[in-house]
Amino acid sequence: MPTSVPIPKAELHLHIEGTLEPELAFALAARNGVTLSHDDTLALRSAFAFQDLQSFLDLYYELMAVLRTERDFEELADAYLARAAAQGVRHAEIFFDPQAHTSRGVPFGTVVEGLGRALDRSVERYGISTRLIMCFLRDQPVVSALATLAEAEPYLGRITGVGLDSAELGNPPGPFREVYERAAALGLHRVAHAGEEGGPEYVTEALDALGVERVDHGRRVLEDPALVARLVREQIPLTLCPLSNVRLRGIDTMEQHPLRDMLDAGLKCTVNSDDPSYFGGYAQDNFDAVRTALGLTEDQERTLARNSFEAAFLEDDEELRTRYLKAVEAHRFQG
Ligand code: HPA
Ligand SMILES: [Zn+2]
């Protein structure tokens, strides 16, 4: 928990299923009669030592089995919002993975209505405005993504955008072009994970084939100077997740994180928590980790916070964006 007042920020890369803390997982398992393969929260937490993205995803999908009812999804979102508020999050654009639930018999509507119950009270209860982004699983067939988008149509009032996540290597963005074209025609915003484990070519493909407006991760873009020039020119936001990168061993230590070099290059970087229950920290914890390891200045930290609100899908409420940006400028760092 940060000791000083955290800077106001938007969280733009957050998987709601990745906020499932072990205590809540066991409580929901007991309520729903689900048996987990770990004995208790201590044993489960000790399994949070990952080799790579896939070893994390295996546990992430396994633990989701405890989420079954609207109430479960509501409690999950409520728990996240309470923690995020304490870390200075004022606006959250929340990912969820519908196929990971519908494939085990939980209806799309149960997920969205349950999350929606918590999000509807979020401004009043936590002072956090929210948006929902549904992600397609890139390691599942394109036809499944198309069917999921069709299933979402009755709920589009609650959904702001689409994303692409799960195992990246060997699952490039290109094949999802038609899904993204349909999403765009439905008026949805488009983002995609790219360049998390994969190289910069995944980012280029996400821009060209999917027309993404933000890139989730993009950690390795500095390897491609032409791509960097394009991202800087078009000011395409990158939603970086530093603790995630270390925990999934994309980098060995936080000192090696490219964030500072990326800021110096003029890239529109933001800092986010990805799957905070699994990766050891929420939004401000990620800010603290990069500040300490990379020696970020207060100006750089303010830039990250400003970027987060500028990159947010808040075009339907520019007044709110302006209020948030003023709060960023008014923030005073304490020793
Ligand atoms: O960090 C992630 N990467 C890719 N897919 C994911 N799905 C949940 N978290 C992640
Ligand atoms: Zn992610």
TrEMBL record:
- Name-wise, this protein is Adenine deaminase
**CDD domains registered for this protein in UniProt:** ADA
Q: Which domain of life is it from?
A: Bacteria
Family, per entry:
Belongs to the metallo-dependent hydrolases superfamily. Adenosine and AMP deaminases family. Adenine deaminase type 2 subfamily.
Coiled-coil spans in chain:
none
The answer to keyword Metal-binding applying to this record is yes
Q: Where does substrate bind?
A: D275
How many cofactor units bind, and how?
Answer: Binds 1 zinc ion per subunit.
GO molecular function, a single term: hydrolase activity
Question: Main role?
Answer: Catalyzes the hydrolytic deamination of adenine to hypoxanthine. Plays an important role in the purine salvage pathway and in nitrogen catabolism.
The UniProt keywords, alphabetically, are: Hydrolase, Metal-binding, Nucleotide metabolism, Zinc
EC number annotated for this UniProt entry: 3.5.4.2
Q: Where in the numbering of this chain does the Adenosine deaminase domain appear?
A: 8-320
The reply on keyword Oxidoreductase is no
Q: Give the species.
A: Streptomyces evansiae
Q: Which residues are Zn(2+)-binding? A: H13, H15, H193, D274
Could you say which residues are annotated as the site Important for catalytic activity? Answer: H217
Q: Where is the active site?
A: E196
